[in-house]
Design a protein that fits this description.
mainly alpha
Length: about 110
Amino acid sequence: MFELVLPRRCAGCAAAGQVLCEKCQHALAALPYRVSTGVDTLAPVFVLGPYAGAHRGIVLSMKERANLAVRRHAGMLLDAALTHLEARGEIPEGAVLVPAPTRRAAA
């Protein structure tokens, strides 16, 4: 009944039907890669994709809308990414995972 009143939408692209549609799940399943921040950092910075499209949608859905179902999916993606980086020896000893704010005011 709830689905009739407020249909479920994909957090990545807003398509009707699922928390994350198959297309967005595929887009989000990419391997992490190292990026240059343009600022001197003490540790390497890795991302799973650009802050646009499905990636932006899932981040905003988790952080701004507190979507727990999306957080579960994102947690699994993050776990896979960290496992991959650890297996490659990319994560330095004592590394800390830091969430980035979505707005300057939240920083």
